[in-house]
Amino acid sequence: MKAAAIQMVSSTSLDANLATARQLLEQAAEEGAELAVLPEYFCVMGHKDTDKLRLCEDYGTGRIQEFLAAAARELKLWVVGGTLPLRGPDDAHVFNTTLAFSPEGQCAARYDKIHLFRYDNGTDRFDEARVIAPGSRPVGFTITARDGSAWRVGLSVCYDLRFPELYRAHARAGVDLLLVPSAFTHVTGSAHWEMLLRARAVENLAYVLAPAQGGVHENGRRTWGHSMLVDPWGTVVAQRAEGVGVVTGTLSHRQLREMRAQLPALDHRVL
User: Fold this and answer.
1) What sign does the dihedral 167-180-186-247 (CA atoms) show?
2) Structural domain harbouring 115
3) How confident is the model over 197-225, as a mean pLDDT?
């Protein structure tokens, strides 16, 4: 199965971001992808955290969800929108949510980001919990590829990457592919992004597909980018450093089986 990680440099304009996302999804479809995954905050990177509240939607309805469903249906591919703001537990908070849409345009899975990023180096400070409510459970879904093969997919978002217990829960559920749509900062991304993605692939013997925001945004924020596909051996199969574009690669069940047979670490778990 061919999969695509879409890299964006999202602006403060919903219209512009959706137009760019559509163009990139079309490119992914033209390149033969059966699955295309958008980055975290693909629909908006606001001037301030509370901009998310203005754009939040009720689950099952809204312009952003209609956009994702239509793109999946019209382009005949799985589309994962990772992420958009859905209504939270109160008026001051939203969920940072990944939604997966089938080629029929049906929502097949919803994951609310569990781990919320907080950073303070004495000069720069950021705390997602100011406007985002955390999710509470791992979520996975199954893709049936055009060749009839089934791929079990585990969902995660950005800061989740630092918490291996979430990915181990996905491994126990039998996942083949881990998705990590992200908007890593340039500072943390340059230090930890690739090593964490490769570690999650190796320790769980699964493919990792990580679409990211990658560049200098209208709001002044700089994200790391380096969207990539990593195979279960920890090899970076495809990658884009910065800027808008599509990273495509092929996932092989045969390769997955061979790697798991050669080093059956998942069968050796004790704890």
Assistant:
1) positive
2) 2-268
3) 97
